[in-house]
């Protein structure tokens, strides 16, 4: 396994400069994400050092940036809020344990090659789930920007009420700093080469110090302990380990779905290698490093990965450079962080999470497929109102329902030579089920299992009933899309075939792959039926 594949003497300069850009983006964001998670700023910074190095050295993806993101931070904060007071020593210990449990789950997924599970969180489900978390985060950041205090441990609706109730206590200087920050960040998008988040932190901190705005009620980040990450182990009971297990699994599933999706997208874009199970192992190592060195759960950052792609980076060297620069900050530069205004951090995080609301994605789903829009909306409301853990459960249940719904209702068509396939039930109503004189060619487009067995039987009975009235004496089952048959479906199919034969209709099979033919024979569904390599051959042999 080559370390930092893709790095050579021609690309190292671009990659190193990209690392400086990554550090400038990640340091302020991770401070904000640590606050969302209810953790000290150092937890966000430590999550960039050892975890970043481990992921960079072990991952197959050359571009994916591993780091806590907004969704992970919100999950950490909401899942631990009921177990300990945010920011307390016990709360920090639980966050470390959560990362370590996540490491174990990631490792198990890697060993068992379960990367395919990420595919069960479809795009609409991720849009809804992440959008709900984003709105929850946005509420907290708006409160910071206005200088209004809300209880971070409350659910969304109570916090929304606290925000409105506190509008009379809005701090004008906080609003001015936040508004200026937002303007800089939005206008600065036209000049992507500049790390505007870092610019905002520097400028607003200077303004606060020069004009002593902290005396006017503007809250600041406060004291940030200096020093490198050190080895630690969560000092909690076994009962508390069990308490963090569900949230750790939920965090892992969300991080896995987002991370593998982003990694695959950029690997395909630039024709680079991609090994999902190796990346899962890298995530396991990153979370192990984070849990042992004072960080919190590490996932992937789509926005930072996109930023690195725009700088021309095609290796993991930027993550190593960012880790070194962050280490320098925590060792020698923490005094520069304590006067950072909270409204500026709120503005940086708010601008970063607004795209995660998925407004355009919701509009697109509404336009293209209303059912998937409804799935996204349910996931959005579940994550927002019921909490992210329940939101993840809802997301997976809806995903499974969607998969089962699709598998249970595959297209069943009558095939017409040189014509468009026609739905069998519509063809039966119209009395036009024969594909050629005396022959019905029926295509079942999916595996035959207990969930769609009755649909298959109904299709056979409907087509035979309508076909015999038109003089049909044979039905050919196109098995090209039948990839599997289970016992329940085999029993139902056997009854349908026997019924067809009793009505004087011969049953034949076409385009059956070797494995499908073996299953048909294994379940004793063949009898005297013939197999044909194509539908045309079947029609030629069976037609009048």
Structure description:
Helices cover 61% and strands 5% of the residues. It has helices at 12-36, 41-46, 50-58, 70-80, 89-111, 123-146, 156-165, 172-187, 196-211, 238-270, 276-292, 302-311, 317-332, 342-353, 359-368, 370-386, 388-408, 424-430, 453-469, 487-502, 514-522, 535-542, and strands at residues 66-67, 299-300, 412-414, 422-423, 439-444, 474-478, 506-510, 531-532. It is mainly α and 544 residues long. Strand 7, helix 21 (514-522) and strand 8 (531-532) form a beta-alpha-beta unit. The termini are far apart. Helix 1 packs across helix 14 (342-353), helix 5 packs antiparallel against helix 11 and helix 8 runs antiparallel to helix 9 (196-211). The chain has 22 helices and 8 strands.
Short structural summary:
This protein is mainly α. It has helices at residues 12-36, 41-46, 50-58, 70-80, 89-111, 123-146, 156-165, 172-187, 196-211, 238-270, 276-292, 302-311, 317-332, 342-353, 359-368, 370-386, 388-408, 424-430, 453-469, 487-502, 514-522, 535-542; strands spanning 66-67, 299-300, 412-414, 422-423, 439-444, 474-478, 506-510, 531-532. Helices cover 61% and strands 5% of the residues.
Top keywords for this entry?
8 strands, two-stranded antiparallel ribbon, elongated, 6-stranded mixed beta sheet
Spatial strand sequence of the major β-sheet: 4-3-5-6-7-8
Distance between the termini: 64 Å
Structural class: mainly alpha
Radius of gyration: 29 Å
Query: What amount of the residues lies in strands?
Result: under 5%
């Amino acid at each position: 396994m080559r370390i930092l594949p893709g790095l050579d003497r021609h690309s190292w300069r671009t990659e190193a400069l990209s690392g400086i850009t990554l550090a400038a983006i990640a340091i302020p964001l991770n401070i904000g994400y640590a606050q969302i998670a209810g953790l000290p700023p150092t937890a966000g910074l430590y999550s960039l050092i050892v975890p970043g190095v481990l992921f960079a050295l072990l991952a197959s993806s050359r571009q994916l940036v591993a780091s806590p993101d907004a969704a992970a931070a919100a999950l950490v904060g909401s899942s631990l809020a009921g177990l300990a007071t945010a920011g307390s020593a016990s709360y920090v210990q639980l966050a470390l344990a959560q990362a370590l449990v996540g490491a174990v789950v990631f490792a198990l997924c890697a060993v068992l090659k379960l990367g395919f599970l990420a595919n069960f969180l479809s795009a609409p489900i991720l849009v809804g789930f992440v959008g709900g978390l984003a709105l929850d985060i946005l509420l907290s950041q708006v409160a910071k920007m206005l200088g209004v205090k809300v209880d971070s441990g409350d659910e969304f609706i109570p916090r929304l009420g606290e925000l409105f109730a506190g509008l009379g206590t809005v701090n004008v200087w906080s609003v001015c700093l936040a508004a200026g920050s937002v303007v800089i960040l939005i206008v600065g998008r036209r000049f992507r080469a500049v790390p505007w988040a870092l610019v905002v932190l520097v400028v607003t901190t200077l303004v606060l110090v020069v004009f002593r705005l902290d005396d006017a009620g503007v809250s600041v980040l406060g004291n940030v302990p200096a020093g490198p990450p050190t080895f630690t182990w969560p000092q909690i009971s076994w009962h508390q380990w069990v308490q963090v297990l569900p949230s750790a699994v939920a965090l892992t599933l969300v991080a896995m779905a987002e991370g593998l999706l982003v990694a695959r997208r950029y690997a395909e874009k630039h024709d680079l290698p991609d090994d999902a199970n190796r990346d899962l192992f890298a995530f396991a190592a990153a979370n192990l490093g984070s849990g042992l060195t004072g960080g919190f759960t590490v996932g992937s950052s789509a926005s930072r990965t996109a930023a690195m792609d725009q700088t021309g980076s095609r290796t993991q060297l930027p993550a190593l450079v960012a880790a070194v620069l962050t280490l320098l900050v925590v060792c020698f530069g923490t005094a520069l962080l304590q006067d950072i205004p909270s409204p500026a951090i709120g503005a940086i995080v708010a601008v970063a999470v607004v795209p995660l609301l998925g407004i355009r994605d919701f509009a697109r789903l509404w336009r293209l497929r209303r059912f998937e829009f409804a799935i996204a909306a349910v996931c959005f409301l579940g994550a927002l109102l019921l909490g992210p853990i329940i939101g993840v459960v809802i997301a997976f249940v809806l995903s499974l329902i969607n998969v089962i719904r699709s598998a249970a209702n595959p297209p069943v068509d009558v095939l017409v030579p040189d014509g468009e396939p026609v739905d069998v039930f519509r063809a039966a109503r119209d009395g036009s089920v024969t594909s050629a004189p005396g022959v019905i060619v029926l295509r079942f487009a999916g595996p035959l299992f207990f969930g769609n067995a009755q649909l298959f039987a109904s299709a056979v009975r409907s087509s035979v009933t309508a076909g015999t009235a038109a003089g049909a004496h044979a039905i050919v089952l196109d098995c090209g899309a039948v990839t599997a048959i289970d016992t329940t479906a085999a029993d139902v199919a056997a009854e349908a075939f026997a019924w067809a034969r009793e009505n004087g209709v011969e049953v034949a099979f076409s385009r059956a792959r070797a494995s499908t033919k073996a299953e048909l024979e294994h379940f004793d569904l063949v009898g005297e039926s013939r197999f044909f390599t194509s539908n045309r051959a079947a029609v030629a042999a069976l037609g009048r």
